[in-house]
Specification:
Phosphoenolpyruvate Carboxykinase, domain 1, six-stranded mixed β-sheet, Phosphoenolpyruvate Carboxykinase, domain 3, globular, alpha/beta, manganese ion binding, metal-binding, 603 residues, nine-stranded mixed β-sheet, single chain
């Protein structure tokens, strides 16, 4: 294929040009656009999408430069059942992934991608995951026929000429191909949200490729996110000796000026963003945001674990976000935000369940229909999202994009558990902490497929995202721990549960800004200022060591939050054996040893 003047490439790399030409020959777009990341380009994309009905502008006085998008009803979340790891050997994909034989999948993809972009523009998006100059920053190029994807990738990654300049320097890059799978015949009218009932989200870890077909939603289409930054990057990290994890990242500064950096893993829609933007209720504490979803970590030359956030934006769950639960997120969304599948008020602003105490009398729901409180369905989809730049967040830490990253002092694992798990517990060792991460469980949310509320084991909150065998992932964490142990700089590992409920169904812990009290205890543990109580699952706080000043929680509730029932823990440890058995022969023996120790201590 030759490039006309209007689609002049922004690179001279022969391998890039040949690959783009190859994809164009396969998909047959009507034109090619090399994304630059300029403001004029963004305005053009907005005009294109508004004209197509893909997005609509919100009230510019209330929400400047912000837009609402409504997806097709079949395209609202990750499609884990259609997500594949195409490793050369099935055993390397592991039982945690759907595996497809690479050559067979390439043949299938060749069929569905043939002329899939007919009548559409093919966009070429060079992008970086991570700041320029970081030892773990990696490059990619996503080809897509969705302007919505282009606009969103511009928020979530360092996209355009800035990325192509890095790629032109000769670095390796991940190939990512996406199509909504809705070719247009000449003169055929488009639909606002083109997609296809057939969907594939496929990953080739050995060749560092991603092919996504049929969906235009979220991580299915924004291939820098879960597909690259977790599934492909986790395989890269295993091969290269670092970690790519589903975590948020904060800087915590205590009243006496001590600065600690904490990374925490929670399943999607379990409070990562709220924690990343926490506004402390304890005087003198400051929490600054470094990232809300993905963390890449490596062992530096001093033997310390360092971390960066490879993204540049937030792709957060809107329902439940409010001035009470996350005022920082609400302030971040003042403008320049893309909202997807939320409701719209009569004055053309956004609304979702949990946003305000009072429910509006009338809305246009996420399907575009009239809605009132009497309607049977929610006004916004439970997995409705906001996409906004991290630079707009008032709690964003200075130097959040420093290529050297930050040294990690503590790691936290957490899930949504109504029972069983306490408010906070410290692991006995790195090995025990890996066991807590490997066996963590959470109630399923609307971010993925499955029954909402169902308790499921979600190792490291990475069950849908580990790009290789889950047992090998645990072994990789243990290997990182051995390297850290040699220098004596291994972070301490904790587990939290903000969602414990009483017998009457109410939450026992107020959460939100009050979670700083847990951070306070963790930081004091790191400096040796406070003791703890041994339990079968680790070290629990003494009740007197949790700062409860100004907070009303009954003695009975606090006791339940900070103690564990040995019989219940024994049952949970027996249940946890299922995930160790699930990983089969690749489960490290140390995970079985930790399970046996938990059973011994709880009996």
């Amino acid at each position: 294929m030759t490039f006309s003047a209007e689609v002049k490439p922004t690179t001279r790399r022969t391998d890039v040009l040949e690959w783009v030409s190859e994809i164009a020959r396969l998909t047959k777009p009507s034109s090619i656009h090399w994304v630059t990341g300029s403001e004029s380009e963004q305005r053009h994309l907005i005009d294109v999408m508004v004209a197509a009905g893909t997005i609509a502008q919100l009230n510019p006085e209330k929400r400047p430069n912000s837009f609402i998008a409504r997806s097709h009803e079949s395209d609202v979340a990750r499609v884990e059942s259609r997500t594949f790891i195409c490793s050369t050997h099935q055993k390397d994909a592991g039982p945690n992934n759907n595996w497809a034989e690479p050559d067979e999948m390439r043949s299938t993809l060749g069929g569905v991608f043939t002329e899939s972009m007919r009548g559409r523009t093919m966009y070429v998006i060079p992008f970086l995951m991570g700041p320029i100059g970081s030892p773990v920053t990696r490059a990619g190029i996503e080809i897509t026929d969705s302007p919505y994807v282009v606009m969103s990738m511009g928020v979530m990654t360092r996209a355009g000429i800035v990325a192509m300049e890095v790629i032109d320097s000769g670095v390796d890059w991940v190939k990512a191909v996406h199509s909504v799978g809705a070719p247009l015949e000449q003169g055929e009218a488009d639909v606002p949200w083109p997609c296809n009932t057939t969907k594939y989200i496929t990953h080739f870890p050995e060749t560092r490729e991603i092919w996504s077909f049929g969906s235009a939603y979220g991580g299915n289409a924004l291939l820098g996110k879960k597909a690259f930054a977790l599934r492909i990057a986790s395989a890269m990290a295993r091969d290269e000796g670092w970690l790519a994890e589903h975590m948020m990242l904060i800087r915590a500064t205590s009243p006496d000026g001590r600065v600690k950096h904490i990374a925490a893993a929670f399943p999607s829609a379990c409070g990562k963003t709220n924690f990343a933007m926490l506004q402390p209720t304890l005087p003198g504490w400051t929490i600054e945001t470094l990232g809300d979803d993905i963390v890449w970590m490596w062992v530096d030359e001093d033997g310390k674990l360092r971390a960066i956030n490879p993204e540049t934006g937030f792709f957060g769950v809107a329902p439940g976000t409010s001035e009470k639960s996350n005022p920082v997120a609400m302030e971040t969304m003042w403008g320049n935000t893309i909202f997807t599948n939320v409701a719209v008020t009569d004055d053309n602003d956004v609304w979702w369940e949990g946003m305000t105490r009072e429910t509006p009398d009338h809305l246009i729901d996420w399907r575009g229909d009239d809605w009132t409180p009497a309607s049977e369905q929610p006004a916004s989809h439970p997995n409705a999202r906001f996409t906004v730049a991290i630079s707009q967040c008032p709690s964003t830490a200075a130097g959040w994009d420093d290529p050297h990253g930050v040294v990690i002092d503590a790691l936290i694992f957490g899930g949504r558990r109504r029972t069983t798990m306490p408010l906070v517990v410290e692991a006995r060792s790195w090995q025990h902490g890996v066991y807590l991460g490997a066996t963590m469980a959470s109630e399923r949310t609307a971010a993925g497929e499955g029954i909402v509320g169902e308790l499921t084991r979600d190792p490291f909150a990475m069950a849908p995202f580990t790009g290789y065998h889950v047992g090998d992932h645990w072994a990789h964490w243990l290997a990182i721990g051995e390297r850290l142990a040699q220098s004596g700089h291994a972070p301490r590992i904790f587990q939290v549960n903000w969602f414990r409920r009483g017998d009457d169904g109410r939450f026992l812990w107020p959460g939100f800004g009050e979670n700083i009290r847990v951070v306070d205890w963790i930081v004091k543990r790191l400096s040796g200022e406070t003791g703890g109580v041994d339990s079968p699952i680790g070290v629990l706080p003494h009740r007197a060591d949790v700062n409860m000043h100004g907070l009303t929680v009954s003695d009975a509730d606090l006791t339940e939050l900070l103690t564990v029932d040995h019989a219940v823990i024994e049952e949970d440890a027996i249940s946890a054996q299922s995930v160790l058995e699930f990983a089969g022969v690749r489960t490290p023996q140390s995970m079985w040893d930790e399970n046996a120790e938990t059973l011994r201590l709880s009996s």
